[in-house]
Automatic annotation (TrEMBL):
<dbReference type="GO" id="GO:0043041">
    <property type="term" value="P:amino acid activation for nonribosomal peptide biosynthetic process"/>
</dbReference>
<dbReference type="InterPro" id="IPR020845">
    <property type="entry name" value="AMP-binding_CS"/>
</dbReference>
<dbReference type="InterPro" id="IPR009081">
    <property type="entry name" value="PP-bd_ACP"/>
</dbReference>
<dbReference type="GO" id="GO:0005737">
    <property type="term" value="C:cytoplasm"/>
</dbReference>
<dbReference type="Pfam" id="PF00550">
    <property type="entry name" value="PP-binding"/>
</dbReference>
<dbReference type="GO" id="GO:0031177">
    <property type="term" value="F:phosphopantetheine binding"/>
</dbReference>
<dbReference type="InterPro" id="IPR036736">
    <property type="entry name" value="ACP-like_sf"/>
</dbReference>
<dbReference type="InterPro" id="IPR025110">
    <property type="entry name" value="AMP-bd_C"/>
</dbReference>
<dbReference type="Pfam" id="PF00501">
    <property type="entry name" value="AMP-binding"/>
</dbReference>
<dbReference type="InterPro" id="IPR006162">
    <property type="entry name" value="Ppantetheine_attach_site"/>
</dbReference>
<feature type="domain" description="Carrier">
    <location>
        <begin position="525"/>
        <end position="600"/>
    </location>
</feature>
<keyword id="KW-0596">Phosphopantetheine</keyword>
<keyword id="KW-0597">Phosphoprotein</keyword>
<dbReference type="Pfam" id="PF13193">
    <property type="entry name" value="AMP-binding_C"/>
</dbReference>
<dbReference type="InterPro" id="IPR045851">
    <property type="entry name" value="AMP-bd_C_sf"/>
</dbReference>
<dbReference type="GO" id="GO:0017000">
    <property type="term" value="P:antibiotic biosynthetic process"/>
</dbReference>
<dbReference type="InterPro" id="IPR020806">
    <property type="entry name" value="PKS_PP-bd"/>
</dbReference>
């Protein structure tokens, strides 16, 4: 059985065949309209186009042309948007690097992508030192070349090609190294041109909140800029829930995207401050029915949209738009988005009968070109589409059921891949990093469920002697992004096996150890009411029964989403707002307790 949502070419303005051509068409229509905003800063469509054109001409001089891959490592800012447009106008594909990821991962991605130029910001240079041998001298976006103003402000005029790569997104790889998904211009146009799940026009302001290296940014950035709306860029710092809500209010945001975890926290927190938002998209993981229904009840007239899709099918494959309370036990992933075909197939690759479960295959204009430089993996996951000769279907690995009304429900994964805080994670990549240590002879990583924080990664390892958690965590943090570093570690004498001799991951998922981990330091009891309460807060979220005054938040397995939840709990209990950066500057229970005490005075 196949479901289609207008799987032909998406409607486009004029003869635009590429992202930048459609943007240039929009510039011609509304040159003076505001394209970007951040606080008091405003940039019009014509000005944004001129800035991007000057940088594009510079990139052309640096050798960027169709087939070139250009790395962009920068924090959220208007200059990042200029950079992405410039790369496309020069004919290249952008490769977004998350500044928070470790140096070795940056080097791996730059080498794999064959990037020839690196665009970055001056404040990030120290963390990129030594990469000049790969990409030459970096182009600084926040300290432009003095000669940039002398370059033409006119469009480079490179003809568009819908099959030309627009960007390469790196996802976790089961073999131990990330793999690059090559996304063409047609796939981006299919996502944001007259989508059936979203209405966006000149009256809208869309929040740019996701890291550019996260594929939700594709929707956030190009939906407004290709439809005449305003892109409201969130500041580069880590936000609290109140700071996020304040930005939404001040910028007049009408459309925004949140990962499932942050959506749940916002619903439990300052949701009333999103009253100006008319379309709230959430996803990256399973949404809670209770939280969706609460959002619909508290924000009359809002549309809550559950967005589902792998990077290989360009951000969204299916969406479920909700304006009325969900009456089922789960939130469906909905129906195919515009320009998409889906098939639900059994293990033999044949259509399932009726509402039987099967694997979801996605086709249409959103399908990527494959994995960069990985023909075998591409052939495994991208298969011929029998309904469209010469086109491909992407095997998602997701198990779904299609209801009689055509709405699709997500059932789970057919393999070990998991979603952590909205990011796709292959446990095999983490296991490979653990096994690279000579002391470790076997390892398995599983995702365990937590009532308040969703999934967390737990690493089980076999070694002759125990290793301190900070030692393990630091080693992994040198090669893996923060979201792939496990929240907890456990040493076993041997990994449990099934009757077939495979690692019994189901058994490991049930193995919850609430003991204080080996942090390489002695336990000291928290002193005072605030410190004791903070230790209990941390322990509840980290599933650790005993946390000491000198224990480090991040060495215990804390992360930014958890810090956001704790700041909300602190505000509820004591009526003070602790900025998220306080966790980095004061990472122990005792130090954070002192911050809270000072704010209470």
């Amino acid at each position: 059985m196949t479901t289609t949502a207008d799987a032909g070419a998406p409607a486009r303005s004029g003869n635009a065949q590429s992202v930048h051509e459609l943007f240039e068409h929009r510039v011609a229509l509304t040159p003076d309209a505001t394209a970007l905003s951040r606080g008091t800063e405003r940039i019009g469509y014509a000005e944004l186009n001129a800035r991007a054109n000057r940088l594009a001409h510079l990139l052309r001089e640096r050798g960027v042309a169709p087939g070139s891959n250009v790395a962009v490592c920068a924090e959220r800012s208007p200059e990042v948007i200029v950079a992405l447009l410039a790369v496309l106008k020069a004919g290249g594909a952008y490769v977004a690097l998350d500044p928070k990821q470790p140096y070795e991962r940056h080097r791996t991605i730059l080498t794999d992508a064959g990037a020839t130029v690196l665009l970055t910001q001056e404040r990030l240079l120290a963390g990129l030192d030594g990469l000049e041998e790969l990409v030459g001298h970096p182009v600084l976006l926040d300290r432009p070349d003095p000669t940039l103003a002398d370059r033409p402000a006119t469009d480079p005029g490179l003809p568009g090609d819908p099959e030309r790569p627009a960007y390469i997104a790196y996802t976790s790889g089961s073999t131990g190294t990330p793999k690059g998904v090559v996304v063409p211009h047609r796939a981006v146009l299919r996502l944001v041109t007259e989508p059936n799940f979203l209405t966006v026009g000149p009256e809208d302001a869309v929040l740019q909140f996701a890291p550019v290296a996260f594929d939700a940014s594709t929707l956030e950035i190009w939906a407004p800029l290709l439809n005449g709306a305003r892109l409201a860029v969130f500041p580069s710092h880590e936000p609290s829930l109140d700071q996020l809500a304040e930005t939404v209010e001040n910028e007049g945001v009408t459309i925004m995207w949140l990962t499932a975890g942050l959506f749940h926290q916002m619903v439990d927190g300052p949701l009333h401050r999103l009253s100006g938002v008319r379309q709230l998209l959430a996803g990256g993981d399973v949404l809670s029915v209770a939280h969706v229904n609460k959002a619909l009840a508290m924000l009359p007239g809002i549309r809550v949209i559950n967005g589902y899709g792998p990077t290989e099918n360009t951000t969204f494959t299916c969406c479920h738009v909700m304006t009325e309370p969900v009456g089922s036990d789960t939130v469906p992933i909905g129906v195919p988005v515009t320009g998409t075909r889906i098939h639900v197939l059994d293990e033999r690759g044949q259509p399932v009968t009726g509402e039987e479960p099967g694997e979801l295959y996605a086709g249409g204009d959103g399908v990527a070109l494959g994995y960069l430089g990985r023909p075998e993996q591409t052939a495994e996951r991208f298969v011929p589409d029998p309904a469209a000769p010469g086109r491909l279907l992407y095997r998602t690995g997701d198990l779904v059921r299609r209801r009689a009304d055509g709405v699709v429900e997500f059932l789970g994964r057919a393999d070990n891949q998991v979603k952590i805080r909205g990011f796709r994670v292959e446990p095999g990549e983490i296991e490979a990093a653990l096994l690279a240590r000579p002391e470790i002879t076997d390892a398995a990583v599983v995702a365990q469920e937590h009532a308040r924080m969703g999934r967390r990664l737990v690493a089980f390892y076999v070694a002759d002697h125990g290793l301190s958690v900070p030692e393990l965590r630091r080693g992994l943090a040198e090669v893996l992004p923060p979201y792939m570093v496990p929240a907890a570690f456990a040493r076993l004498m041997a990994l449990p096996l099934t009757l077939n001799g495979k690692v019994d991951r189901a058994e490991l998922r049930k193995d919850v150890n609430r003991d204080r981990p080996d942090l390489g330091s002695d336990y000291r009891a928290p002193e005072g009411e605030v410190a004791a309460a903070l230790a209990l807060m941390w322990g509840d979220l980290m599933e650790i029964d005993e946390i000491g005054a000198d224990d480090d938040f991040f060495e215990l397995g804390g992360h930014s989403l958890m810090a956001t939840q704790i700041t909300a709990d602190i505000a509820t209990l004591w009526g003070v707002e602790v900025p998220p950066r306080a966790f980095y500057e004061n990472p122990t229970v005792a130090e954070l307790a002192q911050v809270v005490e000072e704010l209470k005075r």
